[in-house]
Amino acid sequence: MFKEKYSILVCNSWEQLEISVPVCSSLQVPALQLHMSKTAMRASQKDFESALSQVKRLKDPGNEVKLKLYALYKQATEGPCNTPKPGVFDLINKAKWDAWNALGSLPKETARQNYVDLVSGLSSSSDSSSQVKPEADRKQPGYETLVVTSEDSITKIMMNRPAKKNAITIQMYNEIMLALKAASKDDSAITVLTGNGDYYSSGNDLSNFTDIPPEGIEEKAKSSAILLRDFVDCFIDFPKPLIAVVNGPAVGISVTILGLFDTVYASSRATFHTPFSHLGQSPEGCSSYTFPKIMGPAKAAEMLIFGKKLTAAEACAQGLVTEVFPDSTFQKEVWTRLKAYSKLPPNAMRISKQVIRNREKEKLRAINAEESRALQERWLSDECTNAVMNFLTRKAKL
Ligand SMILES: CCCCC/C=C/C(=O)SCCNC(=O)CCNC(=O)[C@H](O)C(C)(C)COP(=O)(O)OP(=O)(O)OC[C@H]1O[C@@H](n2cnc3c(N)ncnc32)[C@H](O)[C@@H]1OP(=O)(O)O
């Protein structure tokens, strides 16, 4: 698009102007509005030349801006659009023609000035965006148990209790739900869940069961079942591609919900463990449905009933994990891949996810409600109470 030779003209007039370029359907170019002041400096031949060479050094500014630059360049060098309109199927040339034609009879000098101003604005914003801010500065406020960041069209939700192996407290369940709801509405293309430290997550924080309200243990089981159902529903309903970056071992609910993710990348150090019978509990996160579907009923039963722990390679062979990366290069390889995916057209990705997932949503919600009801009862059982007490009194570990 920018390979044409440039010719240079001297600017000799100035006036207030407002240009509107209509939306180009093929490239989604919104209306362009350029405002210039009468007092602005005129662009000299040298300014224009320098803008022309500057533009080649800029980071790719995206189609919308490229079209603006193209149109202004053509107007500045050739005047009003003077070529036949390309056919409807010649999408790129039609978008370029539309952008140029929309400048109407804008004087060449004004187009050249607009070009210089646009390039100057792009240069300063690209200078500031090339300075990478530390993660602490990019962190979204309002989360105590998570670090939530958004950049490169990726919202990253990182569980952040490394000293407790990212065990999920009540507060963390609530914050993950909030972060997912915010990510579903923000302008990111994809969303990632990951863990800080050596674990992805050790699952439900077992001390959640110790905080019994005055209404009694039944009430605690009831409110926990509601929390569980709401938490899992957020994953069922999440509208954008959702990726788990499993940086280390994963236990319990952090494993079961993986069946609701679109992609699961695992470090070679990760393991996948669902020891529900050991804990006197039963499967959740829709795993009673997704795991048999993903890996077949026999393999699913070994994990969900007998608590067989899978290595990353085994989980990948059974279809729970998309791909395993060596731990030494895990972060680098995964984030390079995700940055490339995040540049794909976001609406197309969202619709593809809908087409893949929507027909199962109602079913998954019903399964989630049923699993939550079963657990509500399990939490009141002696088997569960003893297992939790054994862990909390240091008598047992997985
Ligand atoms: C309300 C919704 C409920 C949804 C239902 C969900 C169900 C599940 O997720 S079931 C799975 C529950 N998880 C577990 O049973 C794991 C229990 N943890 C362990 O067995 C071990 O901690 C370990 C194997 C995960 C790691 O062992 P190790 O490497 O030896 O590290 P430590 O045990 O010393 O752990 C460090 C620190 O973190 C605490 N911790 C780890 N996991 C949990 C946990 N799930 N709940 C509570 N606390 C946990 C551990 O107690 C240590 O604490 P400090 O001793 O205070 O340092």
Automatic annotation (TrEMBL):
<keyword id="KW-0576">Peroxisome</keyword>
<keyword id="KW-0007">Acetylation</keyword>
<feature type="region of interest" description="Disordered">
    <location>
        <begin position="122"/>
        <end position="141"/>
    </location>
</feature>
<dbReference type="InterPro" id="IPR029045">
    <property type="entry name" value="ClpP/crotonase-like_dom_sf"/>
</dbReference>
<comment type="similarity">
    <text>In the C-terminal section; belongs to the enoyl-CoA hydratase/isomerase family.</text>
</comment>
<dbReference type="InterPro" id="IPR000582">
    <property type="entry name" value="Acyl-CoA-binding_protein"/>
</dbReference>
<comment type="pathway">
    <text>Lipid metabolism; fatty acid beta-oxidation.</text>
</comment>
<keyword id="KW-0413">Isomerase</keyword>
<keyword id="KW-0496">Mitochondrion</keyword>
<dbReference type="InterPro" id="IPR014352">
    <property type="entry name" value="FERM/acyl-CoA-bd_prot_sf"/>
</dbReference>
<keyword id="KW-0597">Phosphoprotein</keyword>
<comment type="function">
    <text>Able to isomerize both 3-cis and 3-trans double bonds into the 2-trans form in a range of enoyl-CoA species. Has a preference for 3-trans substrates.</text>
</comment>
<keyword id="KW-0809">Transit peptide</keyword>
<dbReference type="Pfam" id="PF00378">
    <property type="entry name" value="ECH_1"/>
</dbReference>
<dbReference type="InterPro" id="IPR022408">
    <property type="entry name" value="Acyl-CoA-binding_prot_CS"/>
</dbReference>
<dbReference type="Pfam" id="PF00887">
    <property type="entry name" value="ACBP"/>
</dbReference>
<dbReference type="InterPro" id="IPR035984">
    <property type="entry name" value="Acyl-CoA-binding_sf"/>
</dbReference>
<dbReference type="GO" id="GO:0005782">
    <property type="term" value="C:peroxisomal matrix"/>
</dbReference>
<dbReference type="InterPro" id="IPR014748">
    <property type="entry name" value="Enoyl-CoA_hydra_C"/>
</dbReference>
<protein>
    <recommendedName>
        <fullName>Enoyl-CoA delta isomerase 2</fullName>
        <ecNumber>5.3.3.8</ecNumber>
    </recommendedName>
</protein>
<dbReference type="InterPro" id="IPR051053">
    <property type="entry name" value="ECH/Chromodomain_protein"/>
</dbReference>
<dbReference type="GO" id="GO:0000062">
    <property type="term" value="F:fatty-acyl-CoA binding"/>
</dbReference>
<dbReference type="GO" id="GO:0004165">
    <property type="term" value="F:delta(3)-delta(2)-enoyl-CoA isomerase activity"/>
</dbReference>
<feature type="domain" description="ACB">
    <location>
        <begin position="44"/>
        <end position="128"/>
    </location>
</feature>
<dbReference type="GO" id="GO:0005739">
    <property type="term" value="C:mitochondrion"/>
</dbReference>
<dbReference type="InterPro" id="IPR001753">
    <property type="entry name" value="Enoyl-CoA_hydra/iso"/>
</dbReference>
